[in-house]
Fold:
Amino acid sequence: MIKSIFIAGAGQMGSGIAQVAAVSGYDVVLYDIKLAFAESGKAKIAAALEKQVSKGRMEAAVAQDAIKRITATEDIRQATGCDLAIEAATENPEIKKKLFRDLDSNLPEHAFIATNTSSISITELGAATKRADKVVGMHFFNPAYVMKLVEVIKGVKTSDETVSAIYELAKCFGKEPVVCKDSPGFIVNRLFDPMLNEAAFLVYEGIASPEDIDKAMMNGLNHPMGPIALMDMIGIDVILNVMEVLYAEFGDSKYRPCPLLRKMVAAGELGKKSGKGFYDYTK
Structure:
């Protein structure tokens, strides 16, 4: 039974997942490479919960209890007492593999390792451990505490028992899990990111302005947010990473990343998190 969860990575996704787990009644260890990063992630969770309380969406006692369940740390050895680790590090295969090896060395034998990767092979990450049968994808969507979907991805060696345990955990989190095999992009990113990439091509080719592209998709297809604004929210670097993985894995030109995305990442224009992407958030 999963009671204690180790979250590896206290950034936007990691802190969001930690919030979901803590509010759902699980003990959480929020880890990052520097204690300041982990504490910052915990502070963001506290602010988000306080906002929920102020809007009357959550009882103050519930929010306080959730924060008490979260321990911030820079010591990966604190994974020793956890039943599950959820990795939410940057989308870099080598960084993730090293982290998986470290988690494998510190987690108890019975523990599962889940990854929140949006595109990297679960099978490849599992191979970096001695417990590939207990390695699984648990892909949350941003913001993790709002979005209902969790993709549960089965690697080649992932056991049915592991998939079942993570599927049930997602339901305990109040999420709607779906199961898929390990394939580049899984379900949502394989379907949706090429559309975002195509929206970037429309800007790159001067077909339409970002504002008009967003307006067209929101009013023509009833999307709650336009694709350009969505890329800024997700992170231009994240979109580029996914498209590069899809292009490399499938070798199909339909997945070729828009050159504009590469230029924006090179310029540090990553979207909301950097203050500027397709839109300017410094004004």
Notes: The chain has a mean pLDDT of 96.
